[in-house]
Amino acid sequence: MPLTTRLLWCLxxxxxxxxxxxxxxxxxxxxxxxxxxxxxxxxxxGSGVVIAPGLVLTAAHVIEGVDDIDVVVQRRxxxxxxxxxxxxxxxxxxAVDTRDIKPLPLRNRPLGERxxxxxxxxxxxxxxxxxxxxxxTEANRLIYSSAPVNFGQSGGGLLSCENGRLVLTxxxxxxxxxxxxxxxxxxxxxxxxxRPDDTRRFISxxxxxxx
Length: 211
Hints:
Blueprint: H1 2-5, E1 8-9, E2 21-22, E3 25-26, H2 30-33, E4 36-41, E5 44-52, E6 55-58, E7 69-73, E8 76-86, E9 91-95, E10 116-122, E11 128-139, E12 142-145, E13 157-162, E14 165-180, E15 183-194, H3 196-206
Antiparallel strand pairs: 1-14, 2-3, 4-5, 4-7, 5-6, 6-9, 7-8, 8-9, 10-11, 10-13, 11-12, 12-15, 13-14, 14-15
């Protein structure tokens, strides 16, 4: 398939501000954005999503080999611990004080053809960025979309509209790149995220360890 024959997958983030109205949902507002948090540890910086009070979902590779993990909640770094992780699907669940941040609900249905999506995360470990795009396809147990991402957005959220509200559709894993003149060049029009059913299954299993 074209997306997998030419493209190599690297590790991620996002860049374009959003202002569109799509499928009954407006672009993410400040309340939605507050559910996207920054993850720090040793020399790494990534992103995460508040999915329940005291719980943040991220990509497993963001915290790989990191002993001391902090999650920046309401401008304060708070110590986090790993509740569960699955390297195969690249997901990890962290326990941390999320204060009064409202969790993002999880999508219940598969994405429709060319559904509008938004990718949110902390580009290069700095400011929260948001990129708008379209669902492209689902292959190799992953979601491919045209929402732009960049370094530091790993573990951030891919959002979409369902029943008139923005919901968490997947966790950002990678951006696309292609080889040009012997070098890998990042593409702004392809990003990779987990599937809603894999995300839901992981959370259900991980919840066994939170009680």
